[in-house]
Amino acid sequence: MEWKPGMIVSLKVARKADFGYFLTTEKENSEDVLLHKRQVTSPIEIGDTVEVFLFHDHQERLAATMEKPIVSLGKFDWLEVVSINERDGVFLYNGIARDLFLSMDDLGPDRSLWPKVGDKVPVSLIYDKKGRLMGRLLRGTPIEETAEKAPKTILNENVTGSIYSFAEKGVFVMTEEGYIAFLHFNEANEELHLGKVITGRVTFVRDDGKINISLQPKAHERRHDDADKIYEFLLKRDGGMPYTDNSDPIIIKQKFDMSKGAFKRAIGKLLKEGKIYQKDGWTYKKE
Q: Which positions are tagged coiled coil (predicted)?
């Protein structure tokens, strides 16, 4: 069997050097692999068989470590971003001294959507054109096969999870419970990027156990917030403003950052509470 980086194999300690040990399969014409002394995690002797993870060192030589990787060939897991190269991609901690590279080819050209240091993303191991080990961002089937089916009782509950994929109309999130959630861009109220941890309210549970979530407050909570914003605006203008529920929706969006529908609902709430009145195209605070 050909030895490749990313494999976990059992090799025999053939000989010792000042800088570490050389490992072998004892097969004819097999190449010894260096286990540097910094990669030895427990005492070993010549003749011992040790389980090691194979990787390329900084000089692109095949090397071994007794440290346990988080991800090996054929597996996937969520790895933490430890550094970012704005030109090429990000580096991930895989449980060993050599960080794993995730290319911009996987991340996309928009740097604002890349994960930040400390974020986690799901990856497996692949080889580049030169046979070097690197990460591959996972989406779709591999994630779905490991997901849990959300119960109908979770409707309107809050869930927390990490964004792992962008789609045309929103993002996919893996929750802490293992559910796959979809967040439509219209239901977001903050910037989004891969690996970002968000908490949202479950708005729909599909028959296949996937869920939809929203970062927006419920309608009555939103109406309360919008009403407060309008009332504060009135106070800052000495109790009067040239805007009513008949004002142009573009102007409402510019002035209050809300839709005309949301503005009318908030105005209606303030009118019902007796806090405001309207006259001649103006809205006034009641004394």
A: none
Residue 223, CA distances (Å) to 4, 243, 259 in order: 59, 17, 12
CATH of the domain at 52: 2.40.50.140
DSSP one-letter code for 97: S
Do 151 and 133 fall into the same domain? no
Structural domain total, the chain: 4
Q: In tens digits, what is the pLDDT along the chain, a chain of 287 residues?
A: 678 899 999 999 989 988 889 998 766 556 788 899 999 999 998 999 999 999 988 888 889 999 999 999 999 999 999 999 999 999 999 999 899 999 999 999 999 999 999 999 999 999 988 888 999 999 888 899 999 999 999 999 999 999 999 999 999 999 999 999 999 998 998 899 999 999 999 999 999 999 999 998 775 556 667 888 899 999 999 899 999 988 998 999 888 888 888 889 889 889 988 999 999 999 999 87
Q: Is 170 contained in some domain?
A: yes
pTM: 0.72
1 is a domain residue: no
Q: Is residue 70 part of a domain?
A: no
- From 94, 118, 138, the end of a domain falls on 138
The rounded distance, in Å, linking the Cα atoms of 189 and 196 is: 14
Both structure tokens of 127: 């080889």
> What Cα–Cα distance (Å) separates residue 234 from each residue in 58, 141, 224, 276?
64, 52, 15, 9
